[in-house]
Amino acid sequence: MQVKQMRKKFSKLDKMEMSIWECCELLNEVVDESDPDLDEPQIQHLLQSAEAIRKDYPDQDWLHLTALIHDLGKVLLLPKFGGLPQWAVVDEYINTY
Length: 97
Fold this sequence. Notes:
Blueprint: H1 3-10, H2 20-26, H3 42-56, H4 61-69, H5 86-89
Keywords: Ascorbate biosynthesis, Cytoplasm, Iron, Metal-binding, Oxidoreductase
GO molecular function: inositol oxygenase activity; iron ion binding
Cofactor: Fe cation
């Protein structure tokens, strides 16, 4: 699917209406196969990220929220949101270190 087709399909925002937390909970069904350090659902990663940022930057509420929502786009992996392949949603990389 080309970029213009993807934009047309997904920019409608007509799949579902939900709260941020409801969207986070959907990530209980997603494990990021491209991250060798994680073998748990993405919601755990979101919560761990937000908590780590909160500890390091306690007065930066906007940053806590950013850490919490940074991977919400991974709901596009789920069938009801398009069921896109992982490579199309996650920036896969090769560790060259």
